[in-house]
Design a protein that fits this description.
- This protein is of the alpha+beta class and 467 residues long.
- The protein has 2 domains: 4-213, no CATH class; 219-462, Aminoglycoside phosphotransferase (APH), C-terminal lobe (Aminoglycoside 3'-phosphotransferase, Chain: A, domain 2).
- The chain has helices at 9-16, 98-110, 174-184, 221-232, 237-255, 271-290, 305-315, 357-360, 366-388, 396-411, 421-446, 452-462; strands at 31-39, 47-56, 62-73, 82-86, 89-93, 113-115, 124-129, 142-145, 151-156, 160-165, 167-168, 193-200, 206-213, 219-220, 336-339, 343-346.
- Strand 12 (193-200) and strand 13 form a beta hairpin.
- Helix 5 packs parallel to helix 10 (396-411), helix 6 (271-290) packs parallel to helix 11 and helix 9 packs antiparallel against helix 10 (396-411).
- The longest helix is centred in the last third of the chain and has 26 residues, at 421-446.
- The termini are far apart.
């Protein structure tokens, strides 16, 4: 019997639910099962095992998690990321161990394939390399990134970054799909894909991890804007945001450029599909405004839920919603890096982690990404005073919107957008309203001091004249 077989599921469950990437902290775990475990290689110490566990909740509901595990003899006294002791081995999270992180890179380099023991070749762990990876002695230093909420990432030699997906679902991860597609279609403003690994078989076909180039010294758009307020009131950064508008349009045009690939071919949504989108947003407005407390911050929108829903219906009188394509799905200033060599680089194509994988792979209007970025400008303008003590100029948000949007609309493949400027503006307003209402719910539940930011966005949209 191996040490893995001796792991107490209760110990594993107790550790798992405390991890920042565990997706269902508010749900009670009924049971945990270790479904599969495969040794990565034959190295005696430390050992590395790739595992998939099932976390069960209520009847018929469960989640799958990918756990790279490390095993060291208890005599070593290993004390980082410890899960439990099984037999004479300390079992721990392999992603805190540089030696084991290097072994994952070696598996990518070798394009290793591991057949699950007893699986008759149907269950396998497969590693893929896109381009040559450095040898082991070219990977130092190795450092985990400890700020993520849904994944675990490790940086190697400030040149490569390995992202390990924790919660997994059947199907390709959208980040892998979009990076491969954008690379094949000549969009260079991304961190280049270097490799990935996956599980295939009857249990699940799923992407488990992805390696990209790492861009040291690059600052994200959020810090760039906030630094700009301190430097010159955000004046110089407006040109950067115009560049970002152009790059965003190039990304959307690339994603909508291939009608031969069913997963990416742009589609014209049916009227029924558009009506369902509007109905979903309408329901969200109703639900959020039912629970809005009466405070000083919420006073500008108090008792205005019906007015917000009426404004949604006014925006919805657009003749055409435009095409739907694959999109970034979680687009904001923090997902964009400004580099010296490439200019803007767009990151994190995984989509919103709280959404299911089918939702994250769904085709949507590219204007939904645009709305996310415009809301990010509003947040930056308000957060500057909250986080840095520096107020943004009153007109900065409007100027930033204009700089980004003008460049975006000049560059985008017009076939993807609604027909006519008026229809485009209306659809964009719908997605901004959707985003602002989502933000309102989030801030009420998590950051009451920030509630005034989505409130101001909702008020602005209520005051928008509908032609």
């Amino acid at each position: 019997m191996s040490s893995i077989d001796l792991i107490d599921p209760e110990h594993l469950k107790d550790w798992l639910v405390q991890q920042r990437w565990f997706a269902s902290k508010s749900r009670e775990v009924a049971a945990l099962r270790l479904l599969e475990a495969a040794p990565l290689d034959t190295s005696p110490e430390p050992q590395m095992v790739l595992a998939i566990v099932e976390v069960a909740f209520g009847p018929g509901t469960h989640e799958l998690y990918h756990l790279p595990l490390g095993l060291r003899h208890v005599d070593e006294g290993w004390d980082e990321g410890v899960i439990c002791v099984a037999g004479d081995r300390t079992v721990y999270d392999a992603m805190v161990d540089p030696a084991l992180a290097r072994r994952l890179v070696a598996a990518l380099r070798q394009e290793k394939r591991i057949e699950q023991e007893g699986g008759e070749g149907e269950e396998a762990w497969a590693f893929h390399s896109v381009s040559g990876l450095p040898p082991d002695d070219g990977l130092d230093p190795v450092r985990p990134i400890g700020v993520e909420q849904s994944n675990s990432s490790t940086v190697f030699a400030d040149e490569l970054i390995l992202k390990v997906y924790r919660r997994i679902e059947p199907g390709p991860n959208p980040e892998l799909e979009l990076l491969r597609f954008l690379t094949d279609h000549g969009f260079d403003n991304i961190a280049q894909l270097r490799g990935w690994y996956e599980h295939t078989g009857r249990l699940v076909d799923a992407t488990l991890g992805l390696m990209q180039e790492f861009l040291p010294g690059a600052g994200d758009g959020w810090d760039l804007v906030l630094d700009g307020f301190a430097a010159d009131g955000g004046e110089a950064v407006l040109a950067d945001l115009a560049d970002l508008g152009r790059v965003t349009a190039q990304m959307h045009s690339a994603l909508g450029s291939d009608s031969s690939d069913p997963a990416f071919a742009p589609d014209e949504p049916s009227q029924e599909a558009v009506s369902l989108i509007l109905a979903r947003i309408d329901d969200e407005i109703e639900n959020v405004f039912r629970d809005v407390p009466e405070t000083e911050a919420t006073a500008p929108i108090a008792h205005r839920g019906l007015e917000v829903r009426d404004q949604l219906r006014a925006f919805a009188h657009a003749g055409s919603g435009g095409m739907v394509t694959r999109t970034h799905g979680d687009y904001h200033l923090g997902q964009c890096l400004k580099t010296g060599q490439k200019g803007w680089v767009i990151l994190d194509f995984e989509g919103e982690p709280a959404r299911s994988l089918p939702e994250r792979r769904a085709k949507r209007s590219p204007l939904r990404d645009v709305a996310g970025m415009l809301r990010s400008f509003a947040y930056a303008a308000s957060a500057s005073e909250l986080q840095r003590g520096v107020a943004a100029p009153e007109d900065w948000e409007e100027r930033a919107r204009s700089a980004f949007l003008d460049a975006y609309l000049d560059e985008i493949d017009g076939r993807l957008l609604p027909s006519g400027t008026q229809n485009t503006e209306r659809m964009l307003a719908i997605f901004e309203l959707e985003k602002a209402v989502y933000e309102l719910r989030y801030e009420l539940n998590n950051r009451p001091d920030w509630v005034r930011i989505p409130v101001a966005g909702i008020v602005r949209l209520l005051e928008t004249e509908v032609a």
